[in-house]
Each structure stands twice: as structure tokens, then as C-alpha cells.
Amino acid sequence: MGSGGRPPGPGSGEPQRPRSDEGHAQGRLERVRAAVAAQAAKGAARARALVRRVEQTPAPPGPFRPGFWRSPLRGPWLTSVFGLVLLFGIPLLFVTGMLSYASYNPGLDRINDQTPDKGLLGFYLFAWPTHPYWLYRLTQGVHVTLGVVLVPVLLAKLWSVIPKLFEWLPVRSAAHGLERLSLLMLVGGVIFEFVTGIINIQLFYVFPGSFYALHFYGAWVFIAAFVVHVSLRLGRMIRALRSRSLAAEMRTDLAHTRPEPPDPDGLVASAPAPPTMTRRGALAMVGGGSLLLLVATAGQSIGGWLRSTALLAPHNRTPGSGPNGFQINKTAASVGVTLAHVGPIWRLEIHGPRETLVFTRAQLLAMPQHVAALPIACVEGWSTPDQQWSGLRLADLAALTGLPDAGSVLVQSIQPPGPYSSVVLRGNQIHDPRSLLALRVNGADLSIDHGYPARVIVPANPGVNNTKWVHRLTFRT
User: Is the per-residue pLDDT at 204 higher than 70?
Assistant: First the structure.
């Protein structure tokens, strides 16, 4: 201590000693670090021990045990054959389904749009063309028929990989968990899409909402999982297909049918049972099932004598004779339209920017009539042959309102409000010379079930958008 009892300051010439509190703090920090490291090491050791215990947990009895699956036919090659068919079939199914959605012109008006929250999923929408006039009949016929025909292939593919669905442990790591999630999306998505599609084409409406919205969103979820699955498995599929000769398998009899070599995916049975069917028989059974479904379905789209074989068609295959003897989607009674609605009190209102015109049916028949040969094709896959429709061109009616270049028209039916009781058509649909407000068909007045007293008929238009029992047209710029 210097004079006055004060500690020496800097420059006093006396040595400086480290402060004791700094030393204590540094020591505490080192001890904390050591304790944290020790706890982390213990936690990692416990986690590894837990993982080992879980991995050693025996699989529960039943399908989770490898010995449960004993078919000697399962293996990468057979799975890949079914997968190859689906690799070509499902993209075509997806594209034709998206084209069907586009044909409803969902970007045109909320009346047409069953999926108003589609957002970026509607990136591909475009003005649906009217040429060729049979376009929707082709795309939707392919979509529905192919969807039905692929059912046996899909079921066979699911059968061939079912041991993977019961794999034990269900999740072994983060990467394995992501793979399992994509598999769940793939299997769940494909089952959802096929089941809802088949239910819809049979007119069995049990959906908790709009079929179109459910099927649309489900298709995008499924196709995303499908693309991921193909990206991960395409190389393995190609190697599996090259591992065996299709021609040789088709010549192999039951006595010489052997299991495939063990595979890393666990598809090959660990304890296979004696074969009761050859791979040739399995492929023939699946192919025969698809062929049978083709015969029982395609006729509703193709028409002609094949229509009589369309046992799965949802509509009457022989609806009657005479000018109105062709398929009907919705009858008048089913939507609440009666003779009182279409009797002498019926009038057609045509609205435009200048005025509203009102016509009786007799006045419409007195105007110049035009004829167009067009089919009706519906989302359920069925279609009619070309029918001879006669009536007034929509373009001429637009001109009467002072809108010769109308950009759209709201078509409203006298049926009670509900799905498709009204529709909006685009300008290209209005101005096609074959687009008619039809009053007659095949030389006779429309029947009430076909839309009497007037209906819309437009080339390549989904049947449900060819509104029947029309009573108001509102042309817009």
C-alpha cells in the first residue's frame, strides 16, 4: 500500500496480479462445457441403445413378418412388368384428365369453376377449342376407358409390392421415413383417384363435396408422388426388366417356375411356397382382365355395335328408337323440370348491352335455321353418335343484341338452381358456326328429356355444358 492506504495504480512500478474473479469465471465455464459434453455423450449413447433395442424388436405376428408372404412369383421382375405398363398408362390418364378439366373452361367464370382455389395448379388452362368437334369425345373416352382397363394392372402391382407396405420397422430413419411417406401418398393417391373415378362414371354420387374438386386435387397429389417414385425406382426397374427374358418367361411351365433371386427390397419371399401358377399365367390373368374390361367399357365411347357390349356403361345402351332415341344424361324429371315449365308460357330472353329481347318458340322457329352434326360426350365417358341438330346460331343471336363480337355468354336453364343449371361459354365457342341454340334434332322437335324447348349444342363441349331447357342468354363483351 502506498501512502494514504490506496492501492498502487498503473505506472507505480509495482507488479500486477490477475484478478481472482476472472479466474473463477474461466474455471466455471470449462466445467460447464465439460458437463454439457458429458450429458450429450450420454444422450447419444442412450439414443443409440434405444435404436438398437427398437431394431431388435421382433415383428408382430401376421403380415409384418417376412415369412407371411410366400408367393414364389413375387419379385422385382414381375413388379417391373406391371410397373412398365403403369409408367405409360398413368401419365396418359393424367394428361387426359387435366384436359377434361380444361374443357370446362374453369378460368372463364366462377359458374364454371368447381375448384376456385386451384391457384398455381391452373397454370396450364387455355381457351378450349371447338376443332375438331369430336375432341372431347376422344379425350374423355380415352380417360375413362383407360382408367377402367388399368384396374387389373394396378391391383396386380399392389399385390406384387404388398410386403413393402408391411415392412418392419415402419420407420428406421429420417430418410426411410420420407420414403415411406412418399409411398403412402403414392398408394393412397392412386386408390383414391381410381375409386372416385369409377364411382363417378357409374353415377354413384357419394362424395362429401364436389367430385371435380376432390378428383382434381387428388390427381396433383398422386402425380407428385408418382414422379418422385419413378425418379427413385426407374433404374431398378430397368435392371429388373433386363434380368429376365419375357419370351423365356412366357415359355416357362409350372414345373420349372422358380422364385427370383433374393432382392434388397424384400419382394422375394424368404420361404416361398410351391408355385400354383406360372408368371405367364399371372400376366395372362391380368391382361385378360384388362381386355374384358375394355370390351365391357369402350363401346359406350366408340358406339356402333360395340355399344351393346358396354355392360359397365352407366346409361341405357338402347334408349329407344326415333329421332330422339339416343343417350340422355339427366332426365327432366330428375332435375325437376315439368311440362308446365316448358309449355306455352315458356319464353327465351336474350340480354345484351342495349336491350332485352324476348321470343316465343314459334318466333325462333320462324328465323333462319342452321344444321350441325355433333355428338354429345360426357365426363362419365359415354358419348352418342353424331346427331343432326337444327336451330339458331349463337353468333347470330349475339348480333341481335348488338354484340357481334361477344366475348362470352351466360346460358341459364329453367331447371332449379344447382350444379350446371347455368354455364358460361367463351367467345370462340359462340362464333363457331356449328354452335347452336338447338330447337330440333334429327328432323323432329326435341323431347323434354333432350332439352325441349331449346338447348345449347357446341362442338367439343362437355355434355353437361350443353345446357338444356334454356330460357335466358346474356351476351357479354
Answer: yes
